[in-house]
Write a structure and sequence with these properties.
The complex is a heterotetramer, with 2 copies of chain A (about 350 residues) and 2 copies of chain B (about 350 residues). Chain A is built from 13 helices and 7 strands. Chain A has 2 domains: about 325 residues, Rossmann fold (3-Layer(aba) Sandwich), CATH 3.40.50.970; about 30 residues, no CATH class. Chain A is of the alpha/beta class. Chain B has about 350 residues and is an alpha/beta fold. Chain B folds into 2 domains: about 180 residues, 3-Layer(aba) Sandwich (Rossmann fold), CATH 3.40.50.970; about 130 residues, Rossmann fold, CATH 3.40.50.920. In chain B, about 35% of the residues lie in helices and about 20% in strands. Chain B starts with 13 loop residues before the first strand and ends with a helix. Classes of the chains: A alpha/beta (about 350), B alpha/beta (about 350). Bound molecules: thiamine diphosphate (TPP) (2 copies) and magnesium ion (MG) (2 copies). One thiamine diphosphate sits at the interface of chains A and C.
């Protein structure tokens, strides 16, 4: 067993394919879908940041820079798989099929934003760090028990690896050989704390060794590497090969959230350097150009489509019925306990509402 | 066809069981009836649980349904959440309530909130079993009685039977409940007595207390291991001519306020007995319920006889920590002679 | 030589500070005075804390004393225990009280028990700081107000200032206290107002409430962010001719029972305001204190105006969750008109 | 970085030295001290089990079979080091210098049993599994800050590695390069759960890789291997080399505690096999015989001495003043809060005692 984890790439910074074995699998359709989804979630992300600045959205956690990780992994999922995201993984959930309007609602403090459509296996974003990791283990254990071929993926950051729940979740999944993929986005920071202070470990992938679990370290800005490695991990899980830990090495360009000021703790020029050299979109663009897939018209068309889609979602969010005070009381239990019923009744009476 | 529903034959036979046997019987009943039910925890499998609460289940239902887990409470509860939202009904054992703290985050931020966070789309119909309480000379921390840490957590129900009949009925009700239930088992009375328990399936309603003794002078309220202690005090009071109304609360959230109000409005006096620390203990909630429902009826201040505001001690001192019939009796006399 | 002790010159100069600045000032004062004091937590170093409570300390005291830790609450508290028994006085920041749950086991089974377990041989003179509460449109879980989970835990004190002066004085008292102290900081009032705060060192005694307003009709009891809400209600009541006695509890364990008893024995009526859930909330303890000390004085049932028995909601509904002056006023009217 | 961890031995089952490099370090005095301490704690352990059976002691956690791990590691410590044991490590604390009578008191439910002598850095046994691991990290961080050469050792079992606190503690120690040794006794079981169900990992030592921490897997029944490897780890820590994880592979012959019945879940004949082949004492005896250190008279003498010491400790424990109810109230805070003072006063009054 080797404990060294070089960063795997499939397509390099210049958009050149590094491993011929992928050649056939990389269809124009696949590449365009990568490009499309990255543009889509980036557009969403920027819009959300700007809405927040205008006071039209609450505190927001942007993911710009990490799109390849989120899109590549989400596209590798099957519709019937489970996804357990954090507050920064709506790029992944949007790609997986979460509603855009609902996602905006979430960032406006609306519980409706946590609710997946019927049949969608999208867990509400985990806010307490790392807590979703054992959930993914459990959901995957359940799929295995049911005898399906479905898997579960949990997203989490570099900071999350320091929590006990990371460890307990991975241990459970490995003991029960659950079809789970633990997808780490190592974006270099947990708010202000750089990964070098978060751990003494040189990589996150090597933490898989503690569980005799396959660990993979990939370039998280290389959507190709993300997609193929996630696919492989998922397939291994579906076929009884147990869980995998993936470390996608990436970078968050902006603030931790719109309430954070990265200039306090790091050199923001690094974001610009990366944007100009290792940006996920740039790389696909180069790949497309290198391979004759680049089509200005198509790019123009999807850019406009996406822009319309995002605008429409914002409109729908803003026209969404106001938060309903009943929802404060009505979903704690299937049927409210007397304490809740009484409190609700008194409160509604006081505020001149009807129950 | 639909009209001719099969009448579920319920056994009317009964059997003598201790409380812990009744718990096992409740688990077995539901494991048989509903294949979504799973039992998991530390040593619940081959070993049958450190108290033998899952004795025989591994042999009967196999390791697919009676699952020994790693020593990892957050893992047990976290994985149970994942299984519960994905179609199963896990009954997770926490070996002792004093070892539930590592899972506190999972219970507080997920078990109790998932239904609300998803407006009912997802729910976590799971049961968390935990033996609790002092009085069996167990090592440190094993003896904590911290129900109040869970009753102050909206989204989970808390039950605590004191008899074999209630234990089985509440277990079945808890497993069938669409919401998470913390099921507290007093170790001290696991085998303290036997009682006739019906075979097969029946439920005891969650949220309802039980009147154990009728009396008009003072209301005594207790649960779990404090029920026999309180009953003994009531007997002694009787010899002094004081008639006690004794309530076994059985469910700690939501508390049966009606049974309390009805009783104290009759007696005008109340003594609450619990083994948890006084400050922050559930006794305070009951004082508030009486304040809210029965202020004008009260003839004397309510007395609380509780564990002290000190960590549950090592066992050489645990008898001093725990409420005794003597302390309860003293409180009864105090409220009566006010 | 020993006879000529240097007289510690205490500054009498004051300075206008917000509550959060006063907290920083308290930390700085003690970091200067006692080199055993360390500050540690997530983002407390270069970033100066997500709320800027440790702003400037890293620059002034260096990374040896202002320590950015991994994202690991059990690690933070567990390592602080090791440091505290080994000669240091850690001031650990938990970024939000809602993220303290992973450390609950360490606090419950060790922070609060080490002195008792070693009969005083070892102690854990540490402070745990935690911003808490709703009202700032923070994301989920960030807004929990769970003081009662710690007041039901013998071995740790809990304080919760509502003003800059008290915040600094209580911070210094907490750091000097030989026992562990949970220091709760209401985010909602971090910067809500400024107040004259003395420079240099002074303490506010742990365990003492503060009278904010004198009145004879009803006693209002609150802490943290609920203090301004309650004061506003008291003002409105005044316009109806109802005079409120307002108590800022400041310390949540041990509660200043005397200030409460004295007040309710004068007014005969009480309204308790807190943002935590009602069931299991500290309000119940206060009801019990009144029951125990002042039963015969009470003219009406005590009212509790609290957060509801529901998880603190996402922020679109948080204003509905939180007690408002209107709700407090209604309760005042209710107890007065009983 | 290699991720394979063979079990290291210094002296094999037949009492033969495997590595000449230790030859000079293994003095007769050292070997006799190993032998002495193993006999001593084994005598204690058996006495405690028998006292429990007679109802003269509470539930007790025996360690027979694990003596080499506990003695070898404890003898490697310096007097000023810290020790963070579990409920099963009184073999280690007794060797380190804890009082025998106090240790018995502990198992009789007496808080006095948790109190170390002045100057002794012995933490009370951790009952909640793995919670002591971050304490050791913190105590070691404190020693480093003070600039001493002292280290801290935490003991824990195979089951403990599944807890979040194990992970968080090791991560802290590695990030802050604290002089801590994490000493695992892999006795094959956590109560009834075999290590194969506890983890998918083939070794516990490999878990060190997650923290870029040295990990060592040793024969925990080989007191020589335990002693020298612990010494090396401690020295590395003292000299700024950070923490080490040691996995000592051993076996618990008897029940988990006197309240447990191992026949329910495992084949107890394995204990007998190990006792006859790999027992810690047997091995030293063979080594001593092979090297001319064996001296029947000396063995006889220490056996009697130890037996007297244990009997005296039992007597002292049984003559110890009865538990004092004041101790229930007096040590929660430096000065009792009013709630405690009032409860104490009322209780003493009721029970006819004076405060
Ligand atoms: C248990 C817990 N502790 C602290 C926080 C506060 N917090 C929110 S995000 C964050 C940093 C997370 O870093 P990382 O895991 O790397 O994810 P990223 O934000 O970089 O995507 C912290 C400390 C939290 N949400 N939960
Ligand atoms: C947090 C916690 N959970 C559960 C227990 C109950 N318990 C006591 S010992 C034990 C097994 C420990 O196994 P291991 O760590 O291998 O140590 P060993 O007993 O084998 O020395 C368990 C589950 C506990 N003490 N603490
Ligand atoms: Mg990160
Ligand atoms: Mg073990």
């Amino acid at each position: 067993m080797l404990a060294d984890f070089p960063i795997l790439q499939v397509v390099d910074e210049n958009g050149l394919l590094l491993h011929e074995q992928y050649k056939e699998k990389i269809t124009e359709e696949l590449v365009k879908s990568f490009y499309y989804h990255i543009v889509r979630i980036r557009t969403f992300d920027r819009k959300a940041v700007s809405l927040q600045r205008q006071g039209r959205l609450g505190t927001y956690a942007p993911f710009e820079g990490q799109e390849a990780s989120q899109v590549g992994s989400a596209l590798a999922l099957d519709k019937d798989d489970w996804i357990f995201p954090t507050y920064r993984d709506h790029g992944a959930t949007l790609t997986f099929g979460a509603g855009m309007m609902r996602t905006l609602l979430y960032w406006n403090g609306r519980v409706e934003g946590c609710v997946p459509d019927d049949g969608q296996k999208i867990f509400p974003p985990a806010v307490p760090i790392a807590t979703q990791i054992p959930h993914a283990a459990g959901a995957a254990m359940a799929e295995k028990r049911k005898g399906t071929k479905n898997a579960a993926i949990a997203y989490f950051g570099d900071g999350a690896t320091s929590e006990g729940d990371f460890h307990e979740g991975l241990n459970f999944a490995s003991v029960f050989q659950a079809p789970a993929v633990f997808f780490n986005q190592n974006n270099g920071f947990a708010i202000s704390v750089p990964v070098e202070k978060q751990m003494n470990s040189r990589t996150i992938a090597q933490k898989a060794l503690a569980y005799n679990m396959p660990g993979v370290r990939i370039d998280g800005n290389d959507v190709f590497a993300v997609y193929f490695n996630t696919l492989e991990a998922l397939n291994r899980g579906r076929n009884g090969g147990g869980p995998t830990l993936i470390e996608a090495v990436t970078y968050r360009y902006g603030a931790h959230t719109t309430a954070d000021d990265p200039f306090k703790y790091r050199d923001q020029s690094k974001s610009e350097t990366i944007r100009n050299t290792r940006d996920p979109l740039l790389r696909i663009e180069r790949y497309m150009k290198n391979n004759g897939f680049w089509d200005e018209n198509w790019v123009h068309k999807i850019t406009e489509e996406i822009s319309n889609e995002v605008d429409q979602a914002v409109k729908d969010m803003e026209n969404y019925p106001k938060a309903n005070v009943n929802d404060l009381f009505d979903h704690v239990f299937e049927r409210p306990t007397w304490t809740i019923a009484k409190q609700k009744e008194e409160y509604l009476r006081l505020s001149g509402r009807e129950a | 066809m639909v009209m001719e529903r099969a009448v579920v034959k319920r056994s009317t036979k009964t059997i003598q069981l201790t409380m812990i046997q009744a718990i096992t019987d409740g688990l077995r009943t539901m494991l048989q009836e509903d294949e979504r039910v799973l039992v998991l925890g530390e040593d619940v499998g081959k070993n049958g649980g450190v108290f033998r609460a899952t004795e025989g289940l591994y042999e009967q239902f196999g390791e697919d349904r009676i699952i020994d887990t790693p020593l990892s409470e957050a893992g047990i509860i976290g994985a149970s959440i994942g299984m519960a939202v994905n179609g199963f009904k896990p009954v997770a054992e926490i070996q002792f309530l004093g070892f539930i703290y590592p899972a506190y985050e999972q219970i507080m931020t997920h078990v109790s909130r998932i239904r609300m966070r998803t407006m009912g789309k997802y729910s976590v119909p799971m049961v968390i079993r935990a033996p609790y309480g002092a009085g069996i000379r167990a090592p440190e921390v094993h003896s904590d009685s911290v129900e109040a840490l869970f009753t102050h957590m909206p989204g989970i129900k808390v039950v605590c039977p004191s008899s074999a009949y209630d234990a089985k009925g509440l277990m079945i009700a808890a497993i069938e409940d669409p919401d998470p239930v913390l099921f507290l088992e007093s170790m001290r009375i696991y085998r303290a007595s036997r009682e006739e328990v019906p075979e097969g399936k029946y439920t005891v309603e969650i949220g309802k207390g039980k009147k154990l003794l009728d009396g008009s002078d003072v209301t005594l309220i207790a649960w779990g291991a404090m029920v026999p202690v309180t009953m003994k005090a009531a007997e002694q009071a009787k010899t002094q001519g004081i008639n006690c109304d004794v309530i076994d609360l059985r469910t700690l959230y939501p508390i049966d306020k009606d049974i309390i109000a009805e009783s104290v409005q009759k007696t005008g006096r109340a003594v609450i007995v619990h083994e948890a620390h006084q400050t922050g203990g559930l006794g305070n909630d009951i004082v508030s319920i009486i304040n809210d429902t029965s202020f004008l009826y009260m003839k004397s201040p309510i007395e609380r006889v509780t564990g002290f505001d000190v960590p549950v001690p090592l066992f050489a001192l645990e008898d001093h920590y725990l409420p005794t019939p003597q302390r309860v009796l003293k409180a009864i006399e105090k409220v009566v002679n006010f």
